[in-house]
Amino acid sequence: MRAMTYNEYGSPDVLELTEQPVPKVGPGMVLIRVKAAAVNPVDWKVMAGYLDSMLDIDFPVIPGWDVAGIVEAVGVDSPLFQVGDEVISNGRKDYVHGGSFAEFIALPERLVARKPASLNWEQSAGLPLAGLTAFQVLTRLAVGTGDTVLIHGGAGGVGSLGIQIAVARGARVIATSSAANHDFLRALGAEPVAYGGGLTERVRALAPGGVDVVADFVGGVLDTTLAVLAPGGRHASVADGEVVAHGGTWMWVDPAGADLKRLADLVDEHGFSVEVARSFPLDQAADAYRLNMLGHTRGKIVVTP
């Protein structure tokens, strides 16, 4: 099969298109024919070696965790899916090796869920990591009806899905972004505020008594979080471990297929949107990485084998 691989840590220049064996399908696993795979910042951070102290690497690496595709084969004692099922996954395994930037990927059933019927392949590929992150943070924070929620980074992949999840749960949402993305946030159901100097005052103007929940998806905003949080409020971050010292929760996404199923059901029930900024063919995956590394793209960047 065709796959993008790298044999050493480095920049996107280390990626090359190679021929690799089709993955074996063990017990409790499914083989997925990849229709689309999304680029996430963690992908190029792993490739650069930034997470070497946390994750074991087996070179050559096929990068990519997010995937949408069709079940091609099932292993022994794999009752959850059948050949032909349309599925999605955040396919983070116990070590980094066989990822989604290839024609096929083999994954444990526990990491897989059915594809939302309302999303196309590219949109579906952009859902798992970003969507699970938002879903699990807001679930941990027990967001529900009557809550006022501040989302830092509302126009990003995680934040935009977080807005939609919180609104679906009956919460009022205030979200930060640049002024250029305010109409986008309003369309998702949020009240937008510009980030930068004076943010605390702008949030306080909308919620004079403070907000019940803060979800930080960008980092570097702890002072604002603490300044606008109502007494007894809850907060969590996926980007700043210092929240723990201030009563918050520092979270790392769990690729659980059961949570992904619940998220996919929410997507179909409420008509969530997943914005795709651009799609690249497999042999241009390095360019997809470079675009993601700029950090200014609204919407997901996708690779299609």
Features:
single chain; seven-stranded mixed beta sheet; Alcohol dehydrogenase; Quinone Oxidoreductase, Chain A, domain 1; oxidoreductase activity; GroES-like_sf; globular; 305 residues; 2 domains; Rossmann fold; ADH-like_N; six-stranded parallel beta sheet; alpha/beta; NAD(P)-bd_dom_sf; 9 helices
What does this entry look like structurally?
This protein has about 300 residues and is α/β, with parallel strands linked by helices. It has two domains: about 1-125 and about 275-305, Quinone Oxidoreductase, Chain A, domain 1 (Alpha-Beta Complex), CATH 3.90.180.10; about 130-250, 3-Layer(aba) Sandwich (Rossmann fold), CATH 3.40.50.720. Helices cover about 25% and strands about 30% of the residues. It has helices at about 40-45, 120-125, 130-140, 155-170, 180-190, 200-205, 220-230, 255-270, 285-295; strands spanning about 1-5, 15-20, 30-40, 55-60, 65-75, 85-90, 95-100, 105-110, 110-115, 150, 170-175, 190-195, 210-215, 230-235, 250, 275-280, 300-305. The strands form four sheets. Strands 3, 5, 6, 8, 9, 16 and 17 form a seven-stranded mixed sheet that branches. The chain has a six-stranded parallel sheet with strand order 12-11-10-13-14-15, sandwiched between helices. Helix 3 (about 130-140) crosses helix 4 and helix 6 packs parallel to helix 7 (about 220-230). The protein is globular and about 60 Å long. It comes from Cryobacterium roopkundense. This is Alcohol dehydrogenase. GO terms for molecular function: oxidoreductase activity.
